Amino acid sequence: MMLACLILIPLAAGVLAWAAARWSVTAARWIALLAMLADFTLALSLWISHYHAGFATWYAETDWAWIPQLGIRFHLAVDGLSLLLLMLTFFLGTISVLVSWREITEAAGFFHLNLLWILAGIAGVFLAVNLFLFYFAWELMLVPMYFLIAVWGHENRTYAAVKFFIFTQLSGLLMLVAILALFFLHHHATGVYSFEYQDLLGTAMSPGTEMWIMLGFFVAFAVKLPVVVLHTWLPDAHTEAPTAGSVILAGLLLKTGAYGMLRFVLPLFPHAASVFAPIAMALGVAGILYGALLAFGQTDLKRLVAYTSVSHLGFVLLGIFAWNSLALQGAVMTMICHGISTGALFVLVGALHERIHTREMDHMGGIWSTAPRLSGAALFFALASLGLPGLGDFVGEFLVLLGAYQKSIVLTSLAAIGILFATFYALRLVQRAFQGPNTRDWHIPDLVPREGLVIGLMIAALLWLGLYPRPILDTFQQAAARLEQLAPGK
Amino acid sequence: MTIVFYVSSAVAIAATVLMLTRVRAVHALLYLIVSLLAVAVIFYVLGAPFVAALELIIYAGAIMVLFVFVVMLLNLGEETVRAERALLAPSMWIGPSVLAAILLAEFIWMLARGGVPPAQAVSIGPVEVGISLFGPYLIGVELTSMLLLGGLVGAYHLGSRKAPHTEVTHATHP
Amino acid sequence: MLDLLWLVPAIPFASAFVLAVFGPRMRSKAVAVLGAGAIAVPAVLMLLIAAAFVSAPPAGGAYTQVLWTWIGVGSFRPAIAFYLDALSLVMVVVVTFVSFLIHVYSTEFMRGDEGYSRFFAYMNLFVASMVTLLLADNLLLLYLGWEGVGLCSYLLIGFWYQDPVNGLAGRKAFIVTRVGDTAMAVGLFLLFHSLGTLRIQDLLHTASDQWQIGSPYAVAAAALLLGGAVGKSAQLPLQTWLPDAMAGPTPTSALIHAATMVTAGVYLIARTHGLYELAPQVQLAVAVTGAATLLMAGCSALTQNDIKRVLAYSTISQIGYMFFALGVGAWGAAIFHFMTHAFFKALLFLAAGVVIEALHHEHNIFRMGGLRKELPAAFWTFLIGGCALAGLPLITAGYYSKDLILWSAANSTAGTAGLWVAGIAGVVLTSLYTFRLIFVVFFGQPATPVSHRPGPAMMIPAFVLAFLSITAGFATTPFAAFMAKALPELHEGGMGMSEVINSTVAGLAFLAGLLVAWYAYLSNPALGRAAATSRVGRVLHRFWFSDWGMDWFYDRLFVWPVVWSAKANKADIVDSIYTGLTRLAALCHRYFSLTETGRLRWYAAWIAGGSAFAVAIAMFL
Amino acid sequence: MLPIRESFILAGILFTLGVIGVLARRNLVFILMSIEVMLNAAGLAFVVAGAQWRQPDGQVVFLFILAMAAAELSVGLALVLELYRQYKTLDTDVLSRMRG
């Protein structure tokens, strides 16, 4: 029941906020904020209450029949992995409500409806253990996101929104086909119709079939992640989306791809995945380097930050397919830290855009002298992004590389060069935008308390993750160990 | 019976061909009626007297009267006749004829391959047809009545429009 | 006493945090007190800890303080833990003490700067990171400190951010050192993968148990760590960042780019000496790197006009001596030279800072001159520092430490005659460029009027360092004994040169350099100019001035291709696949819409043709 | 014996003749006539099939076709009148406003 609440609260609050906005926009904002806080508290209490048990298995399940004849159930459950990502979801959800406080003035009620429904969809993705429900939630987060970009985005929003939609929808359909194939294979083998995750685990199939179905899932998640060559929707969508949209896209939507790999691709198709692993790892490394190079070449601040995601998520892919405890832990750690650090960069870029109405780095420069706190915060998150030890991203990336080294020395060395590349773009971001002479004579207000609170929370979170990541690692540990067990040849 | 069949078949085909090649609409219409009458005979030969009667009454009668009215209302003058004649150049017929010939060849080929079992001549009268119509095909009949109603309303609507008014609507809402 | 060790990095860190967050709203007095005080407390604390350590050595000669397990995944459990032995003790004491003096100096030097609190925040963060680096019990924590000091170096070089040149210099420093760090990170992966731990002491034990001398793993690991060390310590081939790093405020140059951070590479190699003993090839590479660097940087130092750049090249050169010492197995000598170098080089920078400020931010030595009388305090301190740098025999600390290194080169099993000759040549060069600098700046005709005289906060640290630059040399023997607790002693062998000959030759080399400098720059300046303007001289001058063309080379080999490809690919070539698809769709739209002629018969023909086709398919399939 | 096969062939010939008419003629009235021929041919095929299997269904479907033809023709002819009133022509090649 508690898990259902995690989804139902944002869904209901979304409708409520929409209705409330007719007479008071502020009320809509508060409803959204309270809903997110309530969800965050729920997830946190769940975490704390189960922390000592060690997250050995699924718990706190909600299992309602939906279309039982076809094995479709409203079945939710959490383990360490999904719980971590749920907390991230509601943390960033709270933040995205806060950053939209002043930015969104047009149709604010509908905005919050969309925002909360996206978050509900994301929570559903992380909670669902019925593949039909999973697909349902996967699509649920798509449509409101389309509206978020298309209605409240920047200049080129329609193009970006349509591109985003086509990419994700097409890949989602591919996944649907793969899910159905799996469903029928399972029925063929056992005579039972079931979309249940637990039932579908270990479905018997030939290696060729396994590979094809695995690729169906992989491509769907690879588009979301994004894996290089399927990544081109990302910079457009991130750049054109409003700040809250960018935060959710970078912080959460991309993570659903990585989550899908961890939850479905590896456990459902261990053999095919292990055959495919070298290619996936190479793709990850290509993403790291190519994303970093692209980020280095950008002059649009938001686009630069968007491309860094391609680079960082390359580490996640590398870690997932390196497939040992170290790398898996690193991948999850990177997911969480990237969500916070890149989310914060988007918040800052959004705050800057609100003040100077441009994202072009050539038009900036010397912001530091007029808004030192904003610039200092940008420096902090740029450093996190380039993998400075002591901040969260470093722990994740280091663990990924440490784990990946055991699989491939060459790929790991190349990925380590990716960290070097991260220096290029992160420092370029800080120096072009915030340092240098203030040629345009900007005079802008520094961070207001609301923004300061958001940024302060994110700084604290990154420092905590960087210096004492044990709680996160311990939470995921059992799930990582189970995944490692699945690796063929173990 | 067989001779009647062949003769009426020949009449049907010839009348249709002649219909196609006329330049005046009224002439064509007359040939069409001949063709329909010939088909009605064939129906009779095939043991479907009810349908044969309907073909006569409705097709050759009512529907063709409708045509005649329209042709008269159109009042196509000599100008149109000359234009039509110009358009009846042989080159106009080649493409359609080739396409039609292919279709026909395919049809006959399939017919030849399929092998139709011969059947005894048994007349199916209006009683059986009526039982069938108001038995298993009741819904079909109802739908057909709705279709006819739709046709009625549509024709009335189109016919009652004032020409200038329509032109205005077309201009503003293309 | 020892359990207060964690406060040594914690206090500067906390102070850096406070200064970063609340600094802009604090009065500058309060900033100065907090900034310098946050280093004074650890410095004093460290002296007390040192006293406790010496008087009552902990068991095994080392003290470990575990704060918490940092990361825990399977067997990978690096802790936030500090390891104090003779080596790290000496390093930390020197670092905190020199840092404190430079902080005091900065309170005056930086006064009135709009980024006053930011400066101290960065400096304190630097000290915290440096101490963490030195005290780290495992290589991961060391890496944290390592990157931390790199970050502070970057921030401080680009401290005056409004001039893009400073920012670029900072970026260059950060990126070039990070090239080395990347190699080092791969080294860490290798070490953990093969030995299963990153705790330095465990690592060294396991390595010597598992690996033979010259085993490929040991060679690879040592070489990769050397990569990191070379980057951080500005040795060949990654030395190009240090001269540019002089764009930072002078106290920064003194602290980070002379006394402490750049010697981190030396510390790393000394700390992991066990690996290098397992990989003699790499150890030889260390020595050769050091020797080549000290000669090349010495030549470059001869040609520079900027006072700070001369000192920067001399730093590179002196660190070259330390690498040289490490390479021949004179671990203790390297650390000893680190200590004396920290004193005299910081002193030189502080005195140079006084000069620069006095001449209204004039950096060009040829627009100085005659400052001996105008700024006597600066002159004497600079002279002492210079003599220590050049190795004035018997008096200065620099002489003793360098003498020890040269003697080790001659008497170590790892040393060779060639290395020793290179070392002696380095002494000549050092003495030559040092006295060139002194003669040009402080003698001759005044060129720029003195506008500002230093206060006590700037001069007292200089005096203290001047005192240490002389006296530290007399502690050679006790120092060596103390170092022997943590580092292996020299394997004697090799040429077996006697101490007297070595010292005499070194002294003569010093004298030769001094005389040439005196002749070319003071007694007969025309000759120096003639040498510099002759054809060979011009070529050499340009070549050396541009740091042997390394920047030119790197620009073409690495920088430009990366920048060019990033710029050229700004629109992302991959995206053109998808835009190509949409173009194709649009094109299809255009051509297919041509079939929509609006002619009824045309459509009907398509229907007929289509059905003929469909029937044909049904027939033949 | 009924001439089933021959009747089918007759239906086919009439149908293709209708096709030729639709394709070759440009006057809307002739096109409508040709369509009537095609519909009639289709109806004939149904009746033939019904006769072969001795079932009334073929005739039932012919009745439906008949009703459909009537409805189609009433609307179609109304459109023809309307078109002629507006454009003063029935040439389908001229009436091509639906061009893509």
In short:
By secondary structure, chain B is mainly α. Chain B has 8 helices and no strands.
Describe the structure.
The complex is a heterotetramer of chains A (490), B (174), C (621) and D (100). Chain A has 490 residues and is mostly helical. Chain A has helices at residues 2-20, 25-50, 80-103, 108-127, 131-140, 142-152, 157-190, 197-200, 207-224, 233-240, 243-268, 270-297, 301-322, 325-356, 367-370, 372-385, 392-405, 409-433, 449-467, 470-486, and strands at 59-67, 72-78. Chain A has a two-stranded antiparallel sheet with strand order 1-2. In chain A, helix 2 runs antiparallel to helix 3. Chain B folds into two domains: 1-98, Four Helix Bundle (Hemerythrin (Met), subunit A) (Up-down Bundle), CATH 1.20.120; 137-174. Chain B is an all-alpha fold and 174 residues long. By secondary structure, chain C is mainly alpha-helical. The model of chain C has no long low-confidence stretch (mean pLDDT 87). Chain C folds into three domains: 1-195 and 233-271, no CATH class; 279-533, no CATH class; 571-620. Chain C contains 27 helices and two strands. Chain D has 100 residues and is an all-alpha fold. In chain D, 78% of the residues lie in helices and 0% in strands. Chain D has one domain: Helix Hairpins, CATH 1.10.287.3510. The mean pLDDT of chain D is 87. Chain D has three helices and no strands. Chain D has helices spanning 4-24, 28-53, 57-87. Chains B and D meet through helix 1, helix 2, helix 3, helix 4 and helix 5 of B and helix 1, helix 2 and helix 3 of D.
Task: Please outline the helices and strands.
The complex is a heterotetramer of chains A (490), B (174), C (621) and D (100).
Chain A: H1 2-20, H2 25-50, E1 59-67, E2 72-78, H3 80-103, H4 108-127, H5 131-140, H6 142-152, H7 157-190, H8 197-200, H9 207-224, H10 233-240, H11 243-268, H12 270-297, H13 301-322, H14 325-356, H15 367-370, H16 372-385, H17 392-405, H18 409-433, H19 449-467, H20 470-486
Antiparallel strand pairs in A: 1-2
Helix pairs in contact in A: 1-2, 1-4, 2-3, 2-4, 3-4, 3-11, 3-14, 4-5, 4-6, 4-11, 5-7, 6-7, 7-9, 7-10, 9-11, 9-12, 10-11, 10-13, 11-13, 11-14, 12-13, 12-18, 13-14, 13-17, 13-18, 14-16, 14-17, 14-19, 14-20, 16-18, 17-18, 17-19
Chain C: H1 7-22, H2 28-55, E1 62-69, E2 79-85, H3 86-109, H4 116-135, H5 139-157, H6 164-195, H7 200-210, H8 216-232, H9 241-244, H10 250-259, H11 264-271, H12 273-278, H13 280-303, H14 307-327, H15 331-358, H16 371-374, H17 376-390, H18 397-411, H19 417-442, H20 456-471, H21 476-483, H22 499-523, H23 525-533, H24 535-545, H25 550-568, H26 575-594, H27 600-620
Antiparallel strand pairs in C: 1-2
Helix pairs in contact in C: 1-2, 1-4, 2-3, 2-4, 3-4, 3-10, 3-15, 3-20, 4-5, 5-6, 5-10, 6-8, 8-11, 8-13, 10-14, 10-15, 13-14, 13-19, 13-24, 14-15, 14-18, 14-19, 15-17, 15-18, 15-20, 15-21, 17-19, 17-20, 18-19, 18-22, 19-22, 22-23, 23-24
Chain D: H1 4-24, H2 28-53, H3 57-87
